[in-house]
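Teaching soon. Got one?

===
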Amino acid sequence: MNRKERAAYLLDRLEQLYPETPIPLDHQDAYTLLVAVLLSAQCTDARVNLVTPALFRLADTPRAMMNVPVESVKEIIRPCGLSPRKSVAIVELSRILVEQHGGEVPQDFAALEALPGVGHKTASVVMAQAFGVPAFPVDTHIHRLAHRWKLSSGKSVEQTEADLKKLFPRDKWNKLHLQIIFAGRQHCTARGCQDGSCLLCRELFS
């Protein structure tokens, strides 16, 4: 199979394997999703889901969070790692949302990426999962799988994102990015498929 054929095959196969794509991070709205995605940097979704209930009991709106001492946030989110930086970002972005966006999470890539602690990947997740805007968030896991499945040879996640967007229909991006994540966790794991022996790799390259 060439690259386009592999992409078409994966689109169909992943739909068979994962017809439902629940969002891995627990949240109630766009704001709590934004905070959860920020916390997930260099941390597992499962750990974030253990931490956020206590954080959101403390404050689950920008207006409430902007008034919480950074130290209180830092103590709660410590298990997620990078807590000094993440706690400052959460409190500060909450203040900016109140002062510049009426307390609402903006449905705009540039405005999201201007917030403290929010990069392109985080903005893409929020746009896709909170607002349904087509995006293709590429983290290190999707970057790895895109290389393993020979869908991209990009040296950066930015190039990999561009390659994947060209290969797959725009209306499939939001669901597909979750399907790839699920496949990477269940089948094509970082350590478990180093020899290309997982279900999907066997089907793609046999």
User: Anything to note?
Assistant: The chain is about 60% helix and 0% strand. The two ends are 10 Å apart (CA to CA). The mean pLDDT is 95.
